[in-house]
Amino acid sequence: MPSLDDYKGKTPAWCPGCGNFSILKVFKEAMVELGLEPHQFLIVSGIGQAGKFPHYLKCHTFNGLHGRSLPVATGFRLANNKMPVIVVSGDGDCYGEGGNHLLHGIRRNLNIKYFVHDNQIYGLTKGQGSPTTMEGMPTKNLPFGVISNPLNPLAFAIALNCTFVARGFAGDQEQLRFIIKEAMNHNGFALVDILQPCVSFNKVNTYEWYKERVYHLDNTYDCRNRVLAFEKALEWGDRIPTGILFRCSRPVFEEKIPFISQTPLKDQPFEIEKVNKTLKEFFV
Amino acid sequence: MQGNTAIAESAIQAGCRFYAGYPITPQNEIPEYLSWRMPQVKGVFIQAESEIAAVNMVYGASACGVRAMTSSSSPGISLMQEGISFLATAELPSVIVNVQRGGPGLGNISASQADYFQAVKGGGHGDYKCIVYAPYSVQEMWDITQLAFDTADRYRTPVIILADAILGQMTEPLLKNKSKPLNQVKDWSFGRKRKSGDKPVVIKTLHTKEGELEALNYKLFQKYETIKSKETLFEQYLVDDAQLVAVSFGISARISKSAVNILRKQNYKVGLIRPITLFPFPSEIIHETASLGKRLISIELNMGQMFEDIQISSQGKTEVYFYGRPGGGVFTPSEIADVLKRYL
Ligand SMILES: Cc1ncc(C[n+]2csc(CCOP(=O)(O)OP(=O)(O)O)c2C)c(N)n1
Ligand code: SF4
Ligand SMILES: [Mg+2]
Known about the structure:
The complex is a heterodimer.
Chain A: H1 20-34, E1 42-45, E2 60-63, H2 69-79, E3 85-90, H3 91-97, H4 99-108, E4 112-118, H5 153-159, E5 164-169, H6 173-185, E6 190-195, H7 207-211, E7 214-216, H8 226-233, E8 240-247, H9 272-283
Parallel strand pairs in A: 1-2, 1-3, 3-4, 4-6, 5-6, 7-8
Antiparallel strand pairs in A: 5-8
Chain B: H1 3-13, E1 18-21, H2 29-40, E2 44-47, H3 51-63, E3 68-72, H4 74-90, E4 94-100, H5 116-120, E5 131-133, H6 138-155, E6 158-164, H7 165-169, E7 202-203, H8 212-231, E8 234-237, E9 244-247, H9 250-265, E10 270-275, E11 277-279, H10 283-291, E12 295-300, H11 306-314, E13 320-324, H12 333-343
Parallel strand pairs in B: 1-2, 1-3, 3-4, 4-6, 5-6, 9-10, 9-12, 12-13
Antiparallel strand pairs in B: 5-11, 8-10
Bound molecules: thiamine diphosphate, iron/sulfur cluster and magnesium ion.
Iron/sulfur cluster binds at residues 14-15, 18, 20, 49, 119, 123, 198-201 of chain A.
């Protein structure tokens, strides 16, 4: 059985009080509770404060390009579908630079767990507006306020029939741990948007701001009802629902490639005779 | 076989089992062929949402130790440059095929060699090189694809096959040279089996510690020096007694060779040097030839890109001329023969 110590990585260089600390803590706890060891899964991350996440852990790490984690994870899963793959990135990385990949990642429904540290700001580059920054909020490069409507990632994902859609909050560790474990156990693409206060550059969406607004979806909520889920996803402002908003089951992309279900691509033998046999059938 | 198909089947024979790509003319036959051929050999074909996604999917698959390839044509290759820079730094083997078309911009779909600088000088950001092969026949499309996967693995580096619209589209007879089976799982990759407590694999390209990035760059350049000394390939054709030597690669070399043959029949002393690797560039043979006083003429389907490397290599030892046509037009053997005659 793994222990929290097995996951000890470098000391994080995040600002004191950053929401990323509790996500890191909860993530480790969830992995330990799931009985996963550091060599048993991969974290692909992009670039940003969230992108540094795997460096502050100990596990297989692929720190790729800004915005391109999902294609890397896709290539990886298709080559090695026996290893669970987690993607960690920021709101800028995932919804901005990587937005197109997210759209197609959801469509494909690969078995990838996508945890987005959504601080509604570009943290690493010191405070520019991100796709989820609220309209009107002054930022470094829009000093008179953001003039575009923010993206609603959950409504977007539900509209695309994403098979697992959830919202967590860095200030609610117990619920976040539950969501992470549920996502890990889900068979298919999971998008978890985690509200993560950035204490240095987002002075609007603070811990207090979130705490006054977030509430748990209760036991009576039916997360299999897509229309209801869409309605819930639209709720943002005075009240912000957290928990699993939507789940459904659709065939997983990897399962549509039958031969890798037994032996992953990386372990497939190279059989030159067979290769030539089928070639002859085609050309003779 | 058609040139594009030759690359595709040769990749299969070389053990390539992962292909990601995005449609663009004139290379569509590569993904089309692989889309049905990959499943037959238990390989994965995926149509990516963009060239940016394609090169990053190759990045992920290659990290698992699987032989992986992508292909595109000029505008799509421009989109891949950021990814190629990362592949070079992370030292991940991969094969990238550019069936060049006319540019700049969307240009047109006829043959061009205008991506020479982009392929040979790095292309993306940072100080790095890719091995660049320039096939000039369907046979070489086959042979070089085999070679490309081997050198990519041996040096853990991205390799570019720089073809063009004519080579991709033309059909010629082909000898299916033997390939050797290979052991796919590489020790450094995520593909190797690991047990509890083993050191995890980390792939990253950010190096912020004092001196770390500099050391990595030196290491890369040491590797490039080895590649220069071991992997340089070129062909010499009737150079010994020649007074004027055409230097030409890819489809231009094919046309130039015919021009040399035309002129030889008329007893003109002309020859051809054909670089097969563009990086490493065959500087030594160019320098030797220049030192013998033979005059050189660069013939390319661009406005003088390899020309600069020939000038650097000949170091003023001889006169170097240039004849080329920019993207969109192709010369004929008699046109080149006339040009060569002018300089004799
Ligand atoms: C191609 C490219 N463009 C821009 C950058 C600079 N950059 C680094 S991180 C980042 C955005 C970070 O924002 P987010 O993804 O929200 O992560 P956070 O730092 O807030 O966790 C940007 C623009 C880059 N590394 N690469
Ligand atoms: S800048 Fe913001 S997101 Fe980055 S470490 Fe500091 S508080 Fe966290
Ligand atoms: Mg952010």
